[in-house]
């Protein structure tokens, strides 16, 4: 009897959420082109989840993202445009997944090599999009591993940069981050964290885990998320962290071809930045997103 009630409640909850998805879709009106392609049911669910299934708040959030995507055009960024930012390996996609099949992004703030915030954000957005594009079927989220090796107050990430990163991640990629591990941050970082946390949604802040190599609970936490044979020694694993910029660039170039085809951007003759400066990319017809390219 108890089990039947639980099943009934679960089924009812599922129906209620599906109704919310339909309600949100109807409230958005007729979408076309990339907006229609972006707004899958899975996408709408993420925005609803981020706003506690409040349709009005979710609609506002999603419409802000659609405006941002229309202006920022993350799907049009190509690796050669941001490759200079990635030369030191300050942010890159790992060659392994976590135990839940999530794409893993490795961030090394101590390897910052540029000062232009716009280019830094463009590079980060490119890699977030790429991480999402490479999610395995059935997985919606990614994990971040942040290595503080070489980090100091002198090469500290500016608050403005951290704030913009948080804004983009939590407002335009809601429910994409499963967990972010801050591995062995120096004590001075705690003061910086108090400032940064002020700009974070409580839901996002809860996903940030401070991990210390000599702390037993931290070690067990990492083991629960990662295979130690895959994880680099910088994160307590046994593998060697060796970023090869040329090899990574080749991988990204291959992914760029796939992404361009998916978004319908492969129909244009190459020109400046890969496209003719005079032409505007037409919005592709709405199609179902493949499992490996949900956004």
Count of helical stretches: 11
- Please report the distance between the alpha carbons of the first and last residues: 40 Å
**CA gyration radius, whole angstroms:** 20 Å
Roughly what fraction of the amino acids lie in strands?
5-15%
Helix content range of the residues, please?
Answer: 40-55%
- Residue windows where pLDDT falls under 50 for at least 5 positions: 269-295
* Number of strand elements: 5
Gross geometry: globular
Q: Classify the secondary structure makeup into a structural class.
A: alpha/beta
- Listing every helix as H and every strand as E from the N terminus to the C terminus, the arrangement reads HHHHHEEHEHEHHEHH
Q: Biggest sheet: strands side by side, in what order? A: 1-2-3-4-5
* Biggest beta-sheet profile: 5 strands, mixed
Description:
The protein is an alpha/beta fold. 47% of the residues lie in helices and 10% in strands. It has eleven helices and five strands, in the order αααααββαβαβααβαα. It has helices spanning 2-28, 33-38, 41-50, 55-72, 79-82, 117-133, 159-172, 189-197, 202-205, 216-225, 245-263, and strands spanning 91-97, 103-107, 142-147, 177-183, 208-211. The protein has a five-stranded mixed sheet with strand order 1-2-3-4-5, with helices on both faces. The longest helix is centred in the N-terminal third of the chain and has 27 residues, at 2-28. It starts with a helix and ends in a 32-residue tail after the last helix. Residues 269-295 have low confidence and may be disordered. This is CRAL-TRIO domain-containing protein. One of its GO terms (molecular function) is phosphatidylinositol transfer activity. Residues 79-243 form the CRAL-TRIO domain.
């Amino acid at each position: 009897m108890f089990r039947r009630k639980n099943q009934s409640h679960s089924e009812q909850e599922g129906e209620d959420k599906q109704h919310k998805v339909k309600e949100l879709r109807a409230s958005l009106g007729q979408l076309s082109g990339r907006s229609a392609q972006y707004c899958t049911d899975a996408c709408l669910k993420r925005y609803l989840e981020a706003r506690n299934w409040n349709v009005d708040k979710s609609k506002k959030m999603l419409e802000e993202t659609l405006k941002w995507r229309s202006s920022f055009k993350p799907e049009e960024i190509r690796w050669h445009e941001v490759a200079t930012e990635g030369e030191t390996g300050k942010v890159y996609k790992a060659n392994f997944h976590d135990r839940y099949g999530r794409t893993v992004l490795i961030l090394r703030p101590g390897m910052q090599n540029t000062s232009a915030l716009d280019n830094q954000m463009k590079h980060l957005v490119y890699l977030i999009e790429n991480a999402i594009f490479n999610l395995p079927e059935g997985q919606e989220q990614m994990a971040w591993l942040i290595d503080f090796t070489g980090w100091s107050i002198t090469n500290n990430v500016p608050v403005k940069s951290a704030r913009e990163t948080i804004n983009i991640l939590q407002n335009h990629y809601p429910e994409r981050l499963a967990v972010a591990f801050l591995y062995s941050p120096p004590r001075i970082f705690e003061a910086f964290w108090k400032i940064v946390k002020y700009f974070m949604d409580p839901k996002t802040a809860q996903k940030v885990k401070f991990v210390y190599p000599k702390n037993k609970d931290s070690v067990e936490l990492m083991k629960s998320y990662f295979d130690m044979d895959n994880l680099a020694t910088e994160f307590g694993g046994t593998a060697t962290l060796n970023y090869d910029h040329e090899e990574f660039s080749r991988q990204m170039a291959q992914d760029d071809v796939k992404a361009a085809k998916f978004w319908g951007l492969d129909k244009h003759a190459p020109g400046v930045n890969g496209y003719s400066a005079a032409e505007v990319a037409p919005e592709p017809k709405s199609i179902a997103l493949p499992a490996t390219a949900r956004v």
